[in-house]
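Final report, Chapter 2: Outcomes

The project's central promise was a pipeline that accepts a single protein chain and returns its three-dimensional structure in a standardized token representation, suitable for archiving and comparison. That pipeline is now operational. To close this chapter, we reproduce one record exactly as it appears in the project archive, with the input sequence first and the structure output second.
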Amino acid sequence: MNKALGLIFPGQGTQYIGMGKDFADAYPVAARTFEEADDLLQSRLSNVIFEGPEEILVRTDHSQLAIYVTGIAIWRTLRHLYPRLRPGACGGLSLGEYTALAAAEKLSFEDGLNLVKYRGSYMSEACDEVKGAMAVIMGLSSEEVEAMVEDMSLPHDLWAANFNCPGQVVVSGTEKGVEAAAPEALRRGAKRVVPLQVHGAFHSGLMKSAKKKLQPRILSVPLQDTEVKIAMNVPGDFVESNDQMRQNLIDQVTSPVRWEQEIRAMNHGGVALFVEIGPGATLAGMNKRIGISGRTISVAKVEDLRKLEKEAII
């Protein structure tokens, strides 16, 4: 185990048609992971991932599964190619928390897949129950956005949802709430407010029905003890207790993602190299804005393996 190595996994919104296909084509271990997921789900998820169509892949009940499976397929390939690549810590943004737990072998691939399937389905149902929205507020601090949400006093319409990195905070809620937040944020000095193309109001009180349905499934899933440290969204810090990990997964559905705090905790805890595994390089961009002392490598395509091969850790 390399205490200086931390794995981080992206969340919903990073998906794209064809992600992971080059790994599946080049490495049997990756191909088998997609096949295993298809068999367990009794559906051809891999076809949707590799070929689309876009309108199916972006659906919450498909995109979460697709990102989870792609992340594990890439991670299994890395483990096969570089047996010395053993992380000291793992973390993931929102959905990515499930991929992180599976990569750390806290959670089996199959159990993680089932939880993600139900999570995506329940969240999709919650989105259909109440039409929600999300927007990124650029240029205000976490504290300023939290104060704004509190001052606006819209407890059923507006929540702070994601503390991604300095100057980038996401709000979530009803269309009424998010529309009201935009001019108020600009009045308070925000540079921009950018609406997100999402299905609903994730990490807000509008997800209560999804949280309630998911809770018994999370509580019944076994978690294994491993040496890998787990950093989590809800506290924005490392968590040791398996029971607390389960509770954090439950609470995360309606609670804000404290990603900036989580990354700082990993950095302060000794992680000197972050390896982002899965589609895109969103987390690497956030790490740059957070200003961590360590480096970040994103592995989304086979060609990205060259970046890892330059590191002494493998």
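Archive annotation: The domain at 2-128+206-309 is CATH 3.40.366.10 (Malonyl-Coenzyme A Acyl Carrier Protein; domain 2).
This record, like all others produced under the grant, will remain available to the consortium after the project formally closes.
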